[in-house]
Amino acid sequence: SYVWSYSQTNTKAAAFETANGESIIAYYSPTCTADNPFSVVQTAAVAWIRTQPFMCANFIYDLNGNKGPNTVGKDIGFMSVLFASDPIVVAPVVVKKVSKTTDYNGAVQTCREVGDDTRLPNVYEGISMFYNQKISKSDVFPTSTVPLGRVNQIYRMHAILGYAQPYYKTSSISEIWCFKRN
Known about the structure:
The protein is mainly beta. The protein is about 15% helix and about 35% strand. It is built from three helices and eleven strands, in the order βββββββαααββββ. The protein has helices spanning about 105-115, 125-130, 135, and strands spanning about 10-15, 25-30, 50, 55-60, 75-80, 90, 95-100, 140, 155-160, 165-170, 175-180. The strands form three sheets. It has a five-stranded antiparallel sheet, with helices on one face. The chain has a four-stranded antiparallel sheet with strand order 3-10-9-8, with helices on one face. Strands 7-11 form a two-stranded antiparallel sheet. Strand 9 (about 155-160) and strand 10 (about 165-170) form a beta hairpin. The longest helix has 11 residues, at about 105-115. Mean pLDDT is about 85; it is low at about 1-5.
């Protein structure tokens, strides 16, 4: 049977605290894939892209250790390294989650209203949200990444199940994550 959920089973982990009180957890997957399916021409047959094998390293940090407020986007954050060849590093800063039913253009506008420098995550930031779903508490949300050759679609992340899927821009969206890029 095929399991869609994410597991840390095949990863190596280390946790430490810096001299100034920052806490860091580092995960490393020795079996991460070199292939980046988002950078090649995709066919109509491509539907769901399972994202778990892409993680090479993931870091979760708490800038002030046990002190509060312990809020994602304030003192807690994460950074992910994807793909063994031509790695991509993302460190999305979560600004706000908005529960609102709209379409893709409405989601883009919602993030603009949150702040001038706030936007939807790209597909790589969405993948990082999947790896860090326990602290981001994300579910299903749109990204700003358009699948190659599909201008009327975007990737939608299923952060609990761990896949990215082409999704029509005119389809209904109910969870919007607004980010700042580091």
